Fold:
Amino acid sequence: MRRTARLLVYQRDEELFFKDQLQIQTKAMTKIRFAPNPVQLPLMKLVREQKKTIGKIRLIIFKCRQPGISTWSAGLVAHKYLLNDNVYAFTIAQDKSTVANIFKMHEIFYTGMDEDIRPTQLYHTKGTETVVGDVSTQSRLLVGEAWRGRDRL
Structure:
């Protein structure tokens, strides 16, 4: 029952899930808990408000380099697919290098979670896909590169 209660608390509170369960890798290559920064905190508030008022998250973020928006966005995706059954998450990145970076974030998120709430990993490819859960209640993450017709964006 403890596991179920913890999952319910984290499902309802993204910020607590980030602080308690997600790890990020610093530029110095050390792992630390994910404490949302001053750029991310207002977005967390907006997410909470949207979930209360419309029941889902709808954001378009024009971002500059380095404020942690990609990491924060990956954390929101992880919150959804790691804590809920039957979720299909797809993240699109502009190039293969960014795909690899985002997928690595998800690997760090997954391995950093407490074992008692971390879902079983059923399938994992090198750098693009992971499936968690059990056979009947799988959640899936895909990270892919954006393409437009035959040319990359």
